[in-house]
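FIELD: query
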Amino acid sequence: MREYKFKRGYKATTERLEEMLKKHFGEFKKDGDKYIVSFGAMEEMVAWIENKKLYVETKTNKNVPDDVALETIKKYNKFLEDLTGYTAKERRKHMMKEVEEG
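FIELD: result
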């Protein structure tokens, strides 16, 4: 499971989460307060917002062609950037900082 913070000015709301899921993945299922998506190499992505943070769990299929895997990664990163306001590079930097502190 991954945890993502939201950049100042980016709202941590389920409405925005739904909007970004539709924009990037087309459709999603809802199970309680969790949103479930399947796309490309992601067999299942479960996302939810709790305490003003985004939480994501993914299950991937490693037996997909390279172009499908690459497209999935690009789409996932763009989804996270549009939702949280942080680029992949910024998210990595935050994660490394937390590992060093933790």
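FIELD: remark
The two ends are 16 Å apart (CA to CA).
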